[in-house]
Design a protein that fits this description.
Shape: globular
Strand order of the largest sheet: 5-4-3-6-1-7-10-9
Distance between the termini: 14 Å
Number of domains: 1
CATH topology: Dihydrofolate Reductase, subunit A
Number of strands: 10
Order of helices and strands: EEHEHHHEEHEHEEEE
CATH class: Alpha Beta
Largest sheet: 8 strands, mixed
Structural class: alpha/beta
Strand content: 25-35%
Number of helices: 6
CATH architecture: 3-Layer(aba) Sandwich
CATH superfamily: Dihydrofolate Reductase, subunit A
């Protein structure tokens, strides 16, 4: 069965964005881009909330064609254009969206059907609202948390409205030269 893995940058105090959704505090560099790029290159599906999907669609499909595109932009654009996208949204329609599935209702049932299909793990990038919905339905199987060396004090938390305790097993950690620490957890069921 396919697993849903959440890739998320967060502050040391557990926020994934500032109070107004700002992410200017996130620390990324080529080392992190290369590390995540290797991990996701094996994947064939990404899951987004509507806001993150629209942000991605506005940049990644043509990012490789921009003059001066970085190695990361070229590789990620190619990956993004080749994967299947799942978008959690109650307002979007998928009539004309190539290689995209919109999930607007029956979240648990629909996602569990997708997890039964052939393919590799499903990567969730950012998308705090979608991630909250997946957590509440017990649909996330693992977390790759990139803890940034900053305390925000307020913002959008990663873990909120948790109904039941979620037990995790730490698989590994990694320290990046920019100060970010990756924590890789699997959910224990």
């Amino acid at each position: 069965m396919r697993k849903i893995i959440s890739f998320m940058h967060m502050s040391l105090d557990g926020f994934v964005a500032g109070p107004d959704g700002e992410m200017d505090w996130i620390n990324v560099d080529e080392e992190i881009f290369d590390y995540i790029g290797k991990r996701i290159s094996e994947g064939d599906t990404a899951l987004y909330g509507r806001v993150t999907y629209e942000m991605m669609e506005n940049y990644w499909p043509a990012a490789a064609d921009s003059p001066g595109a970085s190695k990361h932009d070229i590789e990620h654009s190619k990956w993004y254009n080749g994967i299947h996208k799942i978008v959690l949204s109650k307002t979007m329609k998928d009539a004309d969206l190539a290689n995209t599935t919109i999930v607007s209702d029956n979240l648990s049932e629909r996602i569990n059907k997708i997890k039964q299909q052939q393919g590799s793990d499903i990567a969730v990038f950012g998308s705090p609202t979608a991630t909250h919905s997946l957590i509440q339905q017990n649909l996330i199987d693992g977390y790759w948390l990139f803890v940034n060396p900053v305390i925000l004090g307020q913002g959008i938390p990663l873990f909120t409205n948790i109904k039941d305790k979620i037990k995790l097993q730490l698989l590994n950690t990694r320290q990046f030269t920019c100060g970010v620490t990756e924590l890789n957890y699997v959910v224990q069921r």
